Request: fold
Amino acid sequence: MSDPVLEVTEDAFLGGQLHLKQLKSGHRAGHDAVLLAAATAARSGDRVADLGAGVGVAGLAVAKRIGGIDLVLLEIDAALAGLARANADANAIKADMVVLDVEADAASFAAAGLGPDSVDVVLMNPPFNDPVRHRASPDTARGIAHMATATTLMKWVHTGRRILKSRGMLTLIWRADGIAEVLSALDHGFGSLQILPVHGDAGLPANRILVRATKGGRAPTQIYPALMLNDEPGVPNRKVQEILAGRASLPLATP
Reply:
């Protein structure tokens, strides 16, 4: 029996610097992935792991901005992983593709070449919606991509901590109203937090936070001035447009 044919679209990211295929329906990458990439601090030569990579948008965007990184894309869904691999090839970006659950045990990660203390930088966009408060999508892949359990964030951060080298950096994006969960998860083994609130519109509460943390870091927590996606409803912020076009990065991206 042949595999079902995936319906995909090809979409431009970073102002056309990346052309990526993604599923026509279900979870589709957008601003969150690009902002996560723009907040990720890495240097040429770093081993960078994108956990829960989907079709690879965030990790590939980091590779586009910072040449010479050793990129690993990790994704549980084999179909999405196949698209991520194809996207890396189509954009001439070298990347290793690992089909694995982010919550898998240490032995499984080591077998995939991601043993303890083996990575310089981790980025992640974990499932973040509480199924009690948000109705799950009938699309299975979309549900997996967005729905979290009470332990999802803690387990993803634990995985990041395990594979990161000492002083390695983890960058994540999460719901702004879940900031207490983020701080709790990062309280075990991380420090030197840098937090950037993200607002859809000026004058409205933040709906996302970008957070960078250092394994073993001891510097005080810093909170940056908020990022407004729109200066007012329907009026995109010029700085954000530069970031989405791949011509600028966020303060958290400075190593």
